């Protein structure tokens, strides 16, 4: 029997529409092959939404996302909107989406593909075999804590401030996700904090230690964030699953992404306790190459594969997409961000066509 899924597409800004088109084409093909029926609803977010409605996250967009089974999000932002007030910038729309859908867990894998080892800026012996998942808390911490703002002091000087705050329940729920992921991987979990100077990090560490009692099969370790950043570059293979707060996770997951050679290759998932998950590439909107058919769509396609795996429980369909990515890389096709000598340069659209060819025709019933 055909399985039906409702997907809200958020192409957003910059290269977003280009990479979204490739991901949709891949999903349509994989749907035909695995008897899956996808219905797509496109909605505005970010700069595109600001231009059309005056706000980065229209209520209609949030409503469409809540009514779907999953959300496929591309990218937001660009120079055009950089000087707007903070509450009107494209990025505020993304924060609102995460909060509105209760997406507290961000999963960001950083896996080095054999074909791209030489694209990494680090030595082959350092990155070969890297396979890390960063579990980032997404709706708490300094990005959402209050009070925050910019005020004028008694001396007339301006003062800016943000508050890093976590409740026990917020730490516990992200810790549970991280321990369960670690159980399915290599049973090693590293928690990253700054407990030597931050009270909120001490609470974080205490809760992780308490949660560890429920997972005796998982080896829990702790690192301060500055040391973790250094170790991630020095010897990344020591890590398997990393769990950390919103700010530290934002930074460390980008650092982990670059181990793989290009941030344009990595997908991510943002999940809540219930409701739709949001799947998105780690990279930004790349406004400098938007509309030029230069974008790398592979992270967006791999995000669609994560959606099939985590939200739709379709691991075979997800694996076939992931294998198609491996196939086109084996064939030597590269977009500009992952180009190396001897490879075949292609644009966004052509990379999509190569993926469809690798997937093959629809299966006959």
Structural account:
With 365 residues, this protein is an alpha/beta fold. The chain has two domains: 1-111 and 262-365, Isopropylmalate Dehydrogenase (3-Layer(aba) Sandwich), CATH 3.40.718; 131-259, Isopropylmalate Dehydrogenase, CATH 3.40.718. Helices cover 40% and strands 21% of the residues. It is built from twelve helices and 14 strands. It has helices at residues 16-34, 47-53, 59-66, 90-101, 124-127, 168-184, 199-212, 225-234, 246-259, 298-310, 315-330, 348-359; strands spanning 3-12, 36-42, 70-75, 105-111, 131-137, 149-152, 158-161, 188-193, 219-224, 241-244, 267-271, 277-281, 333-334, 344-345. A ten-stranded mixed beta sheet has the order 2-1-3-12-11-4-5-10-8-9, with helices on both faces. It has a two-stranded antiparallel ribbon with strand order 6-7. It is globular and about 65 Å long.
What share of residues are in beta strands? 15-25%
CATH architecture of the largest domain: 3-Layer(aba) Sandwich
Number of domains: 2
SSE order, as H and E?
A: EHEHHEHEHEEEHEHEHEHEEHHEEH
State the low-pLDDT regions, or none. Answer: none
- Distance N to C terminus: 12 Å
Q: Class of the largest domain in CATH?
A: Alpha Beta
Provide the helix percentage: 40-55%
- Rg over CA atoms, rounded to whole Å, is 21 Å
CATH homologous superfamily designation of the largest domain: Isopropylmalate Dehydrogenase
């Amino acid at each position: 029997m055909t399985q039906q899924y409702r997907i809200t597409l958020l192409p957003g800004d910059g290269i977003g529409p280009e990479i979204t088109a490739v991901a949709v084409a891949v999903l349509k093909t994989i749907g035909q092959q695995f008897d899956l029926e996808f219905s797509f609803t496109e909605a505005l977010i970010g700069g595109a939404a600001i231009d059309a409605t005056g706000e980065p996250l229209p209520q209609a967009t949030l409503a469409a996302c809540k009514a779907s089974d999953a959300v496929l999000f591309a990218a937001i932002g660009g120079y055009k909107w950089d000087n707007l007030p903070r509450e009107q910038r494209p990025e505020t729309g993304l924060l609102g989406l995460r909060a509105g859908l209760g997406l507290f867990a961000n999963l960001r894998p950083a896996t080095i593909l054999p074909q791209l080892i030489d694209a990494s800026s680090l030595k082959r012996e350092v990155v070969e075999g890297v396979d890390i998942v960063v579990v980032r808390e997404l709706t708490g911490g300094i990005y959402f804590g209050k009070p925050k703002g910019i005020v004028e002091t008694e001396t007339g000087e301006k003062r800016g401030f943000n508050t890093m705050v976590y409740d026990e329940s917020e730490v516990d729920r992200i810790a549970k996700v991280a321990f369960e992921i670690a159980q399915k991987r290599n049973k090693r979990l590293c928690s990253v904090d700054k407990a030597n100077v931050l009270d909120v990090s001490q609470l974080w560490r205490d809760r992780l230690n308490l949660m560890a009692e429920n997972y005796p099969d998982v080896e829990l370790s702790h690192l301060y964030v500055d040391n973790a950043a250094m170790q991630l570059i020095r010897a990344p293979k020591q890590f398997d699953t990393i769990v950390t707060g919103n700010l530290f996770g934002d930074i460390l997951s980008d650092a982990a992404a670059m181990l793989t050679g290009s941030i344009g290759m990595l997908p991510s998932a943002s999940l809540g306790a219930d409701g739709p998950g949001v799947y998105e590439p780690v990279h930004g909107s790349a406004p400098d190459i938007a509309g030029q058919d230069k974008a790398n769509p592979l992270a967006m396609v791999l995000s669609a594969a994560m959606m099939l795996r985590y939200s739709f429980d379709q691991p075979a369909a997800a694996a076939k997409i992931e294998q198609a990515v491996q196939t086109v890389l084996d064939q030597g096709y590269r977009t500009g961000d992952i180009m190396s000598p001897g490879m075949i340069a292609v644009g966004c659209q052509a990379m999509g066509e190569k993926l469809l060819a690798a997937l093959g025709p629809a299966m006959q019933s």
